[in-house]
Amino acid sequence: GLGIHGEQGAKVCNLEQSDQIVVKLLDEYLLKQLPWKQVAILINNLGSVTPIELYTIANKCINILEQKSII
Predict the structure, then answer these.
(1) Is residue 3 a contact partner of residue 12, using CB atoms and an 8 Å limit?
(2) Model pTM?
(3) 19-53: b or e for each residue (b if 16 or more CB lie within 10 Å)?
(4) For 4-41, what is each residue's pLDDT tens digit?
(5) Which residues fall within 8 angstroms of residue 2, CB to CB, at 6 or more apart?
């Protein structure tokens, strides 16, 4: 990954479909920390991801959080 200011990301991984990446990120950084009373998700593209790809990622996040009854 890449930090917002160019700093090193949390980990290096192979290229995968966006749905698979969203599942892994939510599992690793959010769902293992349950229960949450409130959740905010910030999706930043550093200017290199198209709007349709961002919407796909956001939609997958929403679907997962709804399935887990978090939102």
Answers:
(1) no
(2) 0.74
(3) eeebbebbeeebeeeeeeeeeeeeeeeeeeeeeee
(4) 677 777 778 888 998 998 999 888 878 777 777 778 88
(5) 8, 9, 46
